[in-house]
User: Fold these one by one.
Assistant:
Number 1:
Amino acid sequence: MNSAKHIEVTEAHNGQRLDRWLKRELGAVPQSLIFKIIRTGQVRVDGKRAKADQKLITGQDIRIPPVKVETTEKKGLSDKDREFIKSLVIYDDGDLIALNKPGDIATQGGTNTFRHIDGLLEGLKNRKGVVPRLVHRLDKETSGILLLARSAEAVRELGFMFKGKDVEKRYMALVSPVPDVYEGTINAPLLKAGGKDRERIMVSDDGQKAITDYKVVDHAGKKVAFIVFRPGTGRTHQIRVHAAQVLNAPILGDKKYGFKAELFDGQLQTKRTHLHAYSLSFKHPVTKKYIELTAPLPPDLKKSWKNFGFSEKIERSLFEDIA
């Protein structure tokens, strides 16, 4: 861009954070540069200085300064990307969309992450031009249900529901070895480890409350167990850390938390973390009706389940005896 330009916020982006809106507008501009032009007052909202987390309102005028990055020109999605994101849809009622995210793509962008679900959502816009927004996220190697909403109100309400106990989430996983106790509730606070590995989480009395119900569905000797987890809170890496540090049974493929690949030479059909978000149950934010969404195991995990002789079928009543 050679000079500053002004863009009016459309209804489709009402309620979106300023930094995320700018990222969508500017394309490949580094996140650090976006924060800089906001912090230094170069970005103006209705002529006033703004903050990165400021929520936009339909009709506002956004001033964007010249940004000297050759790759900042916004490009549309390729036909291949549009077909890809549409192929992931497993539910769409006009207000909500559910995707079955593969285990090889990130939910959002970050350092050295240029292709992600958030960047492909343009391919799911409706006839009114409304692009759906993420309600929550999954780790890159975790597959399964990813929920989107088409209105800012639905995004906000579902966000509150996810933070509380109004959304029941269930995950399928393979762990090793088989836990000593086959079912129960894990109540172990989690804290960022800090230091060189900022993303690593650990169990600590100084951490945030984290609760996970679990139940062993099947096992192959003492080496591998098929477990269903039901997190009652939504901490970063919660299931992965509770499995590794409380059950002493890391999830297969999860090298960050102690999985030893050498013990499974040739037995795994995929090297990624064997964790799949297979079920979400909640009250619809618009219709107020209770709905349950399910996502089948993706092909790569199906092979591992079959390899150890496990069935994918799970009884809905699995946790009835756990309060």
Note: The domain at 79-156 is CATH 3.30.2350.10 (Pseudouridine synthase).
Number 2:
Amino acid sequence: MSDLISKLLLLRSPGIGPVKYNELIKKFGSSELAAESLMINSALHDSVLREIDLAQQLNIHYICDDSEFYPAGLTKIKNHPPVITARGNLETLKKRIVSMVGTRHATAFGMSFMANLANAFVDNGFAVASGMAIGTDSSAHYGALRGVGNHQTIAVLAGGADYIWPLENEKLYYEIMERGVVISEMPIGYVPKGTNFIQRNHWIAGIAEKLILGEADAKSGSMATARFAIEYGVPLYAVPSHPSDSRSVGPNSLIASGDAKLCMGISDFFDAEKAVNSDKKICDTSESENAILDALGLIPVSESVLANIVKKTIAEIKRDLVVLELRGLVRKDNGGYVRV
């Protein structure tokens, strides 16, 4: 029995997670002896072999926690996943990592801020990790993907490494797989449940050397991720928001309590001159352009529909879209425009 098979037999057995897994390894001395002690039935054994075969077909790799590709940050967490799966550029997992999270219902300003911040981190040699949700997560991934080359971003998934969720991010998933990496601790083909997203948030916090929180409601997955970062001793930064917006409660409260450092922009982390140039992408946006950004999301919207929404002529819409596209805030997609 190979080491990988015995580890998966343990992890795919009912009631065995990282805690129980580590107890069994400690008791029996190896994954093979631990698996033999469970007297695993042939059905589970066949299921694991089918999963490994499917992984090979989909070019999904198993990474054990003693591998050079296993994220260094996760190894420091007690009861981390003994085995993860990865699809894409494995070298991405060897880079310095910053995690960026926030609400799914982010403002256009909040998303462009996080996208530019992610892009700056990539330009400075980091990979940006997030959870591939719509809103802030997507902005962080897209901002990272604006960088040159590969190995820019990591999507930590709640389902299997092949399971795309949400469906609106199918295109983003394949872009990340092509130029970064998607990872998961769940079996291939696994459809996530609610508790899996909380577990995913553990790893988003633990994988990074710092976590940046954007807009976030008080009771949200992003705030849970921030609390995990505090628990793990990962430096936490929060982007302040207007106090009248419910999405400001999360970051503002963490700044007020002293649990998070104030994040005002790229200059908090990198060269001031470069930060000023990048921040202009965010700040120099007209009221008309902001209206367009507010109307855009991840589903392409045509120029004519945009004109109707923001009450502008097609000519005005075209002019503003050109400016926004040059700033990296929107892009063409399937005959329409989406927000980056």
Note: The first helix runs from residue 3 to 11.
Number 3:
Amino acid sequence: MTDRLTAPFRLSTWLLCAPLLWACAVQAQGLRPSGQLNLPRSTAAASSPVQSTADFIVALVNSEPVTNNEVRQRLLRVEQQIAQQGSAMPARELLVREVLEQIINERAQLQQATELGITVDEAAVTQAEQSIAAQNQLTPEALRRRIAAEGIDINRLRNDLRNQILLQRVRERQVDSRVRVTDADIDDFIREQQGNNDLSNLELNLAHVLVVVPEGASAERIQELQARAQGVADRARAGAEFAALAREFSEAPERTNGGLFGLRPATRLPTLFVEATRSLGTGAVAGPLRSPAGFHVLKVIEKRQSGVPDTVVTQTRARHILLRTSAQLSQADAVARLAGYRQQIASGQANFEALAREHSQDGSASQGGDLGWAGPGQFVPEFEQTMNALRPGEVSAPLVSRFGVHLIRVDERRQTTLSQREQRDIVRGMVREKKTEEALQAWGQDVRSRAYVEYRDAPQP
């Protein structure tokens, strides 16, 4: 896993302003071997009247045609993605225009890639196909069977993958390589986030005690309940455990959780609570506060501005055994071999470290597979997700990633405070991502402005 700090392969950003390939929809569904793919079928496999519409040119991009079929097929994928996300479906006329603009922008960028001599070989396409299979916990052969069962042409899949990789490479050459992040950029970002009082950037974790005031309560009863809430607040300020106070006195639903709301944006909390705590530090107590429900006592457990990295993170120390697939070792054989190692470890016939030293095809092999202490984001997502689900001492089932097949064991976990340098490294990545997005948008607009686009007949989805 020597490439663990490398940004993961991303097929696309799932937004209307970015490419939406149906091949990526396979990945986005979290495909499992027992599941059913719900992908739009190919024209040959479908029988609906929409699919049988005669094709025609809807636009020219530097004399290269965009056809109605392209728009229709992309539209189906976009609509499916929106439905899967549970989002409100935009008006179809608007969606058709957005999809057409996507395709036009992509076509212009692909043409620039060709002009720059950027190419994608078959090996890269195959690797991308294997990556999709790995992220969906399938072998490449199983992925192809699933795609074929949905009536989708594998050659179209590979062509879409080739174009997506080509788009990624031209963007990397024209945009990513030119983005620079200075120390001044980092300082400006930190000052901006810390000095931003906008509630949309504030996140709070509050603990809460509610003393309910019944409707129609007498003045004497209200005074009695206020005194009870005041007593809770006084005891909390004196150092009593707030969770115990919540379980004893609170009548709110979160009492069983020690009164904790959990970290959430300030915009999702009652205005009364936010106004009472936004100027308080961690550990401070507010209240009693009166609302129509009764009297509230609040304690600030955690407070931060979104966009500024946490100072305390959970780190994991793990080991792994990596087998890389090749012509001599298929993915299925690698999975079977690692499953055998796992069984040997569980039965006490072998230990993880010795197997890693003997068999792992990774730089960590000489250390018994030890990957050292790692924080969030240091491993590729499929590896990190499996690792995070393990308890210390537990060994995973064989995991397929873009690097090969792994067996993972978690040794320890700890909470650690990031050094100032580590925090700045995280901010540097955040600033780079922000500047890259801005530069990518500007580059895309420039490419589009220099392309000759002629609109023909309106799309008929």
Note: The longest strand covers residues 404-417.
